[in-house]
Amino acid sequence: MGYYFSLEKKMTDFIPVNEPSIGYREKELVLQALDSGWISSEGPFVSQFEELLSGRVNRSYGIACSSGTAALDIAVQALGIGPGDEVILPSFTIISCASAIYRTGATPVPVDVHPNLWNITAENIEPAINSNTVAIMMVHIYGLPVDIDPILNLATKYSLAVIEDAAELIGGSYKDKPCGSFGTISTFSFYPNKHITTGEGGMVLTNDHQLATRCQSLRNLCFKPESRFIHEEIGWNYRLTNIQAALGIAQLEKLDQTLLQKAHIGSLYYDLLCSIPDICLPTTTTPYSNNIYWVFGLVLGDSYSINVADIMSELRKLHVGSRPFFYPIHLQPVFTKLGLFKNISLPVSEKLATNGFYIPSGVTLSDSDIFEVSTKLSSILSKYHS
Ligand SMILES: Cc1ncc(COP(=O)(O)O)c(C=O)c1O
What we know:
This protein is an alpha/beta fold. It contains 14 helices and 15 strands. The radius of gyration is 21 Å and the shape is globular. The protein starts with a helix and ends with a helix. The relative contact order is 0.17. The structure holds pyridoxal-5'-phosphate. Pyridoxal-5'-phosphate (PLP) binds at residues 67-69, 93-94, 96-97, 139, 165, 167-168, 189, 191, 202.
């Protein structure tokens, strides 16, 4: 395991919030792609990557595409969601989830998340269901799976489609079944901070043949095989290249090592930070899953006399990277300017956005990096706690 991580060379003494681990195997496969001349999406690594990853998560079909955002666009469109429809999603998530719904003409309906799990729950979803609701988008947040079964039960009860956004849970599992295998359709992202990276990239996964065919078509401008350049529908060029897929295959080969390293990072941070007063750390385990620490997040309690922006700037001065938490969907100016989400208050999502931030969490972190980050963070916080 040390092999992949020891290849990494730190360029400066700054500890970045994330750094991808690109080793010998990635370079070997990318060179193979380049040498073969197959550099577009037509090359053989693309279907190989689709088969390998969909196989790993027990899905019949994987449709590789250019980003996790593209995967969500394709998934929502492929389900036939459109004007007049409502889709429930967590407010505490990335804009891509809401934009995919909004672009179809449907209405995103953000609901609040659990205060310790930071995830959407069936209890928060059910009151938001009405006769216009057609789907639930369940998004696993920061490495801890959503409690899926109660949400699938709701979906069955109300005949709703389920989109599982597993961008942050590649390699994670729920009750021993892989994340990315749940619901009508699921999506991954392969941005460099994910457990598998292709630089930019994503995948849609499903067991439904018709849905898969539709996703393939939407990814590829809705070309019709029998009459090229005659289009009956608008799609996108959301294709993944063979070079990116080569990277993805090499990354998938070491996913188990990545999961081990991330689990180690998470538990070491936990041990080093758990005695800090009035700080909420990530939930490590639930009866149905373990945290795979996509990122290591912290939520500041109200007894501190410093805000998150200032903590992040003090960390930066000490050469430690960090990021704020997601900004809630129901407060996003792009939507509120349109008159959406008036008079909605979702206190947990709002508090997470105000008080949450995450510290360096990438696979290349050494134990001494983790000690350094923890020591610096603890000393900043101790100055501002009464
Ligand atoms: C939950 C979730 N969904 C979707 C995305 C979007 O993925 P991408 O950056 O590949 O477009 C992200 C990105 O971080 C994410 O965290």
